[in-house]
Amino acid sequence: MPEPAVVTPRGELDLAAIASLDAAVRSALAAAGTPPRLVIDLSDVSVLHPVVLGVLLDARRSCRRRDGAMALVVTTSEVAVTLATTDVEALFEVTPGLPQAMAQVSRC
User: Fold this and answer.
1) Pairwise CA distance, residues 42 & 75, whole Å
2) Alpha helices in the chain, H assignment, sequence order
């Protein structure tokens, strides 16, 4: 079974970053195989603007629609707070590190 696809955005994920994040996620999903297994590593993200959550939710939907799995790596309080205050945290498999995320989606 192939390794899960990993997307590792960096810096501020805001309105200006949506197009590049979306392209990276779509590319990773295309390469992820069937069922898709995707990890989005947000460890190096300093700001996660709520407007970007649509890209993450679309990726989750795409994975689930094809019986796949997706996990987020969240290591900063800024990103964790955004997920919690927008009430989407429970929709994602959130892990504290890349090894845990890889293991989580590999169980699919």
Assistant:
1) 7
2) 18-31, 53-65, 77-85, 98-106
Strands 45-48 and 11-13: parallel
Residue 80's CATH number: 3.30.750.24
Number of folded domains that form the chain: 1
User: In which domain, by residue range, is 55 found?
Assistant: 5-106
> Alpha-carbon distance 2 to 84, whole Å?
32
Instruction: Please name which of 69, 25, 75, 78 lies closest in space to residue 49, comparing C-alpha atoms.
Output: 78
pTM of the model: 0.96
pLDDT in tens, 13-48: 999 999 999 999 999 999 988 899 999 999 999 999
